[in-house]
Amino acid sequence: MFNTVFLDIDNTLLDFDKCAKDSIKKACEYFSLGYSEKLFREFIKTNDMLWSMIEKRTLNKDELHKIRFDLVFKDAEINFDGQTFEKKFREFLRESHEKVDGADELLSYLVEKYRR
Q1: What is the pLDDT of residue 97?
Q2: Contact 5, 116 (CB under 8 A)
């Protein structure tokens, strides 16, 4: 019998895609850059590729933070400093809290069965 459960927060409790999209929109507004769905699609494609590299241990998170938006902006044909954008994006992302459907119910169920 298990007495402790560990959960990954991204797309288990919080909807990472919604949080990321909202954070990109806010950062674009902050820097007076135009937001587009193309930009978000480029972010998802690039982010997935980079996290795959992290899982294979060919990249680390610090390196991801240095290159992610430079790659996104290159593919989206936006001339802006990716590292500057990355810092503001992560600031907004830390403030995000869009839950996935069922997150509250899952936590209510687990809190009764496992230690906190």
Answers
A1: 83
A2: no
